[in-house]
Amino acid sequence: MATSVQDIKDKYPIPVFYYRVTIEGEDSIAFSEVSGLSIQYQTITYRDGMSYKDGSKQMPGLKNDITLTLKKGIVRGDSYLFNWFNSIRLNTVEKRDIRVDLLDEAGEAVVSWAVEDAFPTKLDAPAFNATTNEVAIESLELIARNLKVDYPG
């Protein structure tokens, strides 16, 4: 059974290494890792008059906040993440929308995650170790109001 190129494009899972991250008002930024693109609801345990017989019921509650982590290599003269983090003041923060696109081999978005009203909550410097030659990676944690997923085409 021969597999055509079109069969591979249509039926095989998409690799995760080819993606684009765009922060509102900026061109795409090269991040080495993006995590936390998850939607989750709290659960409520409800007990009524028949709970002694039927047991308690589980229902969906409030949607949890989106906690996103972006990691990128430190580049000389690039202080974009630090400047955004440093703009935070008590009760004042610049919220931005973030878009993560999973791309196919032609660079077209196959799945897109739109993160709404994100703002930084933590900025981590790289771990320093004189016995390795790894790239210096900074990590930015964000919290956001909402996450939408789009499957174009």
Keywords:
153 residues; mainly beta; Pnp Oxidase, Chain A; 8-stranded antiparallel sheet; 3 helices; 44% strand
Overview of this structure, please?
This protein is mainly beta and 153 residues long. The protein has a single domain, classed as Hcp1-like (Pnp Oxidase, Chain A, Roll), CATH 2.30.110. Helix content is 12%, strand content 44%. The protein has helices at 5-11, 51-54, 80-86, and strands at 19-23, 28-29, 33-35, 41-46, 57-63, 66-73, 96-103, 109-124, 137-144, 146-150. The strands form two sheets. Strands 1, 2, 3, 6, 7, 8, 9 and 10 form an eight-stranded antiparallel β-sheet that branches. The longest helix has 7 residues, at 5-11. The chain is extended.
Topology:
Blueprint: H1 5-11, E1 19-23, E2 28-29, E3 33-35, E4 41-46, H2 51-54, E5 57-63, E6 66-73, H3 80-86, E7 96-103, E8 109-124, E9 137-144, E10 146-150
Antiparallel strand pairs: 1-2, 1-7, 3-6, 4-5, 6-9, 7-8, 8-9, 8-10
- Rg calculated over all Cα atoms: 21 Å
Contiguous helical run count: 3
**According to CATH, what is the topology?**
Pnp Oxidase, Chain A
The unreliable regions are: none
Structure in a nutshell:
The chain has about 150 residues and is mainly beta. The chain contains three helices and ten strands.
